[in-house]
């Protein structure tokens, strides 16, 4: 067997499944893990699935590859990536390619890219979305780095990625850390999407009073329309699943404390640096933080007053309103995410193509959804589109759904049910559509207490006044 050009180190579940995907598509691949036993076990269980070369140490792993080598690193973000690079680099030839396929912070990717390329190596930071199943059967892949580096692995990446209408869910995103930035925002949108669905569930259960079976049926029905998406689909599945030990619905046994790995927080932090309001994503991050305060919430529930009533109106109509609130808030979350990516491209000198990003998110990834086709169409029609809300399809969608959206936010406040993502999305929408906001008062306050100056509506320039 000829030596492979492609290798993968880091055989946790994602790494294993990506390696198997590569082999299943007919590409020979060398595999390696820091723990020798894991490589041995992988070869025993999966070695028959394709042209694998297993390596027990780093030197033999690199030697098993033909130059120009392309080595994909699938380890935990942060220092572990730097450690693997430091171990591999002395064994490489100039022109060899390293690929970071984890959820690295984009600034780390920029740093690594500049350092390695200055020494004659190639490097791309690649976002991979789809979880364990996507890694095996076809993920969405977001490579960032030089186009020349991407071209080395494009035949493999486009073949192993998900395919929608014959189009691979993989494209060269842009230079430097662009790939990991886009993956970061993807995850931020994922946070918002999940929080919005959770808020809809909370209302269906605690305001409307539906059973788990009924909630599952609602999500199944919603998945047949504009809300058709992977997350809605798996939500319906969750509400049909029972604990095999007790026979109770498993979702009710899950502790209400949501974890996070940092990409949503990074998205919010970057948005603040860029001055882009991604309110839905940020509120979703804060909601997870609030959920982590379980002990405090239990104590507070015993002493803090507030309503806890059930919705007493037309419940069927209110369920329709919840669907409208979910869809319109989802539109806002995506609009904010795409706005942030385009602002980052301007700030960091990347060339991003939002229509192509929407295209590769249609399959494989966690936020895959029917309406990504609408996003692609919007940017194809108007590549200079400033905000998705201004695209005719989405303008009309929000116009048609906003009555229900407003009703849900108002009723949730009256009933004492927190809907931070619904509420912040609506506040963003109302703020964005206002010609004049009360920020004139804020600027006047700043000028009074700090002489920060202000602009006027009737003449140009910066002004300072003695107020009062």
Model description:
It is a single chain. The protein contains 19 helices and 9 strands. The protein has 468 residues and is of the alpha/beta class. The termini are far apart. Strand 8 and strand 9 (167-168) form a beta hairpin. The longest helix has 34 residues, at 315-348.
| Through-space gap between termini | 86 Å
Largest sheet geometry = 7 strands, mixed
Per DSSP E runs of 2 or more residues, the count of β-strands stands at 9
Indicate the multimeric state: single chain
Helix/strand order, N-terminal first: EHEHEHEHEHEHEHEEHHHHHHHHHHHH
Strand content: 5-15%
Shape: globular
Q: Compute the gyration radius: what is it?
A: 25 Å
Work out the helix count: 19
Q: Uncertain runs with pLDDT below 50, 5 residues or more?
A: none
Decide which structural class fits the backbone: alpha/beta
Average pLDDT rating:
95
Lateral strand order in the biggest sheet: 3-2-1-4-5-6-7
Can you give the helix content as a percent range? Answer: 40-55%
């Amino acid at each position: 067997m000829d030596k492979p050009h492609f290798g993968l180190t880091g055989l946790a579940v994602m790494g294993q499944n990506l390696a198997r995907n590569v082999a299943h598509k007919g590409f020979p691949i060398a595999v390696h893990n820091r723990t020798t036993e894991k490589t041995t076990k992988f070869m025993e269980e999966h070695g028959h699935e394709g042209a694998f070369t297993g390596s027990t140490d780093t030197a033999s792993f690199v030697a098993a590859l033909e130059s120009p080598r392309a080595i994909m690193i699938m380890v935990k973000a942060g220092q572990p990536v730097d450690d693997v690079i430091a171990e591999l680099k002395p064994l490489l030839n100039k022109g060899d390619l390293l690929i970071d396929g984890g959820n690295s912070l984009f600034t780390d990717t920029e740093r690594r890219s500049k350092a390695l390329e200055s020494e004659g190596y190639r490097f791309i930071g690649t976002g991979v979305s789809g979880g364990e199943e996507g890694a095996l059967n076809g993920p969405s892949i977001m490579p960032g780095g030089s186009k020349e580096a991407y071209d080395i692995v494009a035949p493999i990446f486009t073949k192993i990625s998900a395919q929608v209408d014959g189009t691979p869910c993989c494209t060269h995103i842009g230079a430097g850390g662009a790939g990991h930035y886009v993956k970061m925002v993807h995850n931020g949108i994922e946070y918002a999407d999940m929080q919005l669905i959770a808020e809809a569930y909370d209302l269906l259960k605690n305001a409307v009073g539906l059973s788990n079976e009924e909630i599952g049926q609602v999500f199944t029905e919603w998945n047949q329309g504009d809300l058709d998406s992977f997350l809605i689909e798996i939500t319906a599945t969750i509400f049909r699943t029972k604990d095999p030990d007790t026979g109770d619905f498993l979702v009710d046994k899950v502790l209400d404390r949501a974890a996070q790995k940092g990409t949503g927080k990074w998205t919010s932090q970057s948005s603040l640096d860029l001055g882009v309001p991604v309110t839905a994503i940020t509120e979703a991050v804060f909601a997870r933080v609030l959920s982590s305060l379980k002990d405090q919430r239990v104590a507070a529930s015993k002493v803090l007053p507030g309503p806890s009533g059930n919705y007493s109106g037309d419940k069927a109509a209110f369920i329709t309103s919840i669907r409208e609130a979910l869809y319109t808030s989802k539109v806002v979350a995506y609009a904010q995410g795409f706005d942030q990516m385009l602002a980052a491209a301007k700030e960091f000198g990347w060339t991003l193509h939002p229509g192509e990003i929407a295209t590769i998110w249609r399959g494989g990834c966690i936020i895959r959804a029917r309406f990504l086709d609408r996003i692609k169409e919007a940017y194809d029609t108007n590549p200079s589109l400033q905000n998705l809300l201004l695209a005719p399809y989405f303008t009309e969608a929000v116009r048609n759904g906003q009555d229900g959206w407003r009703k849900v936010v108002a009723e949730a406040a009256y009933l004492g049910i927190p809907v931070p993502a619904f509420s912040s999305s609506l506040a963003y929408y109302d703020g964005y559509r206002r010609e004049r906001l009360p920020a004139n008062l804020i600027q006047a306050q700043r000028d009074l207490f700090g002489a920060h100056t202000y602009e006027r509506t009737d003449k140009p320039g910066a002004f300072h006044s003695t107020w009062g």
